[in-house]
Amino acid sequence: MSTSERFDCHYCKDTLLGKKYIMKEDKQYCTKCYENLFANSCEGCSLAIGCNCKDMSYKDRHWHEECFKCAKCSHALAEKAFAAKDDLLLCTECYAHGYSSKCTTCKKTVMPGSRKMEYKGNSWHETCFLCHRCQQPIGTKSFIPKDDGYFCVPCFEKQFAYQCCACKKAITTGGVTYQDKPWHRECFLCISCRKQLSGQRFTSKENYPYCLECFSSLYAKKCVGCTKPITSLAGAKYISFEERQWHSECFTCFQCSVSLVGRGFLTQRDNVMCTDCGREK
């Protein structure tokens, strides 16, 4: 037989003709070399897991099928559900007995692999976590704790939430109180321009809320000098004389423009002037 016709183990070079062999990365190995080079060591018995054995693996660890057992009761775990705790593999019964939490409602164990709900250190079976009002499972929906119970959002709104006097919908978070009535923040608006008033300075007239700009524009007296509104709501100072008003900075001599605040002045028809300009007339 020529060299090109030979079929040998890639490692020991013994012929593989008529023998069992294993392929790895396009190379053939006799079973002995393959086990020496590549076989995993069993976590249970520390022996190599041979070619004729099933290799059971979990997180880069390996076992013979017969060594893949619960660390507590020694029941076989092959093709069964199991859980890991501190590098030990446990059947679901042993894990549940030793480590699983108890359902706050029914007091039974929440088995590994089953869906459970957790909130502030408490656990429930999914079917035991119920709305206190409608008694339906809350599941993954939003809920609101109240006293010793838990409520789905619709039930909480029906039983406890204030209703906004503007949109008539429930107020679940925050809100504004005005004239002893509740409002959503986004519903509390200036009656004139509809700007949101929450967190802003505002005033009212005839029980309606107004932003300062609208109130000034609609109801404030106008400055004789600049004709713009005068309002004390924004802290503006003004001068009043014979039912006429001026902003402090607008109360000036109409002829020389000197400020008349805190000093004597004269009138000439609808105008005011300083005494110096008045004497020149």
TrEMBL record:
Transmembrane regions: none
SUPFAM superfamilies (UniProt xref): Glucocorticoid receptor-like (DNA-binding domain)
GO MF annotations in UniProt: transcription coregulator activity; zinc ion binding
SMART domains: LIM (SM00132)
Primary location: nucleus
UniProt-listed CDD domains: LIM3_FHL (cd09346), LIM4_FHL (cd09347)
InterPro entries linked to this entry: LIM_FHL1/2/3/5_N (IPR056807), Znf_LIM (IPR001781)
Domain of life, source organism: Eukaryota
Keywords: LIM domain, Metal-binding, Nucleus, Repeat, Zinc, Zinc-finger
Recorded GO CC terms: nucleus; Z disc
Segments forming domain LIM zinc-binding: 40-100, 101-162, 221-281
Subcellular location: Nucleus
Keyword Repeat: yes
PANTHER family according to UniProt: FOUR AND A HALF LIM DOMAINS PROTEIN, FOUR AND A HALF LIM DOMAINS PROTEIN 5
The protein's name in its UniProt record: LIM zinc-binding domain-containing protein
Protein source organism: Zoarces viviparus (Viviparous eelpout)
